[in-house]
Amino acid sequence: MTITGTLDQRFSEATEPTGWRAAAGALDAAQLYWLTTVRGDGRPHVTPLVGVWVDDAFVFCTGPAEQKARNLQTSAAVVVTAGTNTWNAGLDIVVEGTAARVTGRDRLTALADAYRAKYGGDWDFDCDDEVFDPAGEAAIVYQVSPAKVIAFAKSPHGQTTFRFW
């Protein structure tokens, strides 16, 4: 996969684009993300959640009865955002992509390990071939493969768009 980043001069006082390493690092380090899905009637649904950035993709889980899971049954298009609530410091990231269900014990075990490494005992999942926490709430796991990532630098302000080929 090739990742190209371009600084949008229309919205930038920065003279250099944000590097992919910095953008991916911000996604990896975020403790909280905002996930936007689309309801069946076209209205957006936004919710905060925890997740992990693994292999240039965002991974999250949800219960099958939650609104985001129901939305993903009709539309896999999502937006994931992360960043800081400051004007002149930090880096905000917007990931546009498609969510796909993740299954398979080996892959789910690796992702559960990534959650443990990031969040410690707060998010400690067992898994089977289909879900996290099979003996409990049974959380479905999704991976968002990005089509486009936009990094909003704040000092100096700059907008870099990354495309994935």
Description:
The protein is an alpha+beta fold. Helix content is 19%, strand content 41%. The protein is built from three helices and nine strands; from the N terminus they run E-H-E-E-E-E-H-E-E-H-E-E. A hairpin with a 2-residue loop joins strand 8 (140-154) and strand 9 (157-164). The model has no long low-confidence stretch (mean pLDDT 96).
Cα(first) to Cα(last) distance is 6 Å
Mean pLDDT: 96
Oligomer: single chain
How many strands? 9
Rg: 16 Å
Estimated structural class = alpha+beta
The main pleated sheet reads as: 9 strands, antiparallel
Output the keywords:
globular; 3 helices; alpha+beta; 9 strands; 165 residues
Write the layout of secondary structure elements.
Blueprint lengths: L2 E5 L12 H10 L3 E6 L5 E6 L2 E3 L2 E6 L4 H6 L4 E6 L8 E12 L2 H15 L20 E15 L2 E8 L1
Antiparallel strand pairs: 1-9, 2-3, 2-6, 4-5, 5-8, 6-7, 7-8, 8-9
